[in-house]
Specification:
single chain; 200 residues; mainly alpha; 8 helices
């Protein structure tokens, strides 16, 4: 009697810590997945990532100009009223879809809207994907986001849409600049998204 009772109780108590908590933990992980929250966190992350990337690009341009007078001369020549960057061209093409034609000044004002809008929407898509695949976040997804956007957007889509010259017409430094910018975007977006998602 005494020995059987002594063995019966420990056997159940030993089983409980391993069997009982597992189901609630798995259910909790499933409940934590939320596309609305993931998209919202991604939107915020994408916006912050775009801001950080833009500041990085500005700092890169200033550093390049400071290191070389020739670079500064070339940069000023590229900033003449007749030149348009990819976001300005994109703004012009979007306006043409609704039958409007934009002046250079209008494109210059709407270019940043396209830039920030694209970065923010990419963050939302990223946030939704993280929810879909149940990825909590980390260094690898952030780098994948940056490299993916650089390869698919900068190197393929933008030239294909006529918003920039072909990749082969740019020097290696321009490609490194683009890759670095998108890696900064990916990491910044993930850090901001993860913090926002944890707060929701």
């Amino acid at each position: 009697m005494r020995s059987s009772a002594a063995h019966a109780v420990p056997r159940e108590s030993a089983r409980a810590p391993f069997l009982v908590p597992r189901a609630p933990r798995e259910a909790a992980d499933d409940r934590e997945r939320s596309f609305p929250k993931g998209i919202l966190a991604g939107l915020v992350g994408g916006l912050i990532g775009t801001v950080v990337m833009t500041e990085f690009q500005n700092a890169w341009s200033k550093a390049s100009s400071a290191l070389s007078r020739q670079a500064a001369v070339e940069q000023s020549s590229h900033e003449q009223p007749q030149s348009e960057d990819a976001t300005m061209k994109a703004a012009g093409k979007l306006a043409e879809l609704v039958g409007a034609r934009l002046s250079y000044d209008q494109k210059k004002k709407l270019g940043p809207v396209v830039h920030y809008g694209f970065g923010t929407l990419q963050g939302a898509a990223y946030g939704a994907a993280m929810e879909l695949f149940g990825v909590r976040g980390g260094f690898a997804p952030a780098l994948s986001l940056g490299v993916g956007l650089f390869a698919l957007a900068d190197e393929l889509a933008v030239p294909a849409l006529g918003l920039s010259d072909r990749p082969g017409e740019y020097p290696l430094s321009a490609h490194l600049y683009g890759l670095a910018s998108h890696l900064v975007y990916g990491i910044s977006t993930e850090v901001a998204r993860r913090g926002m998602r944890a707060a929701l």
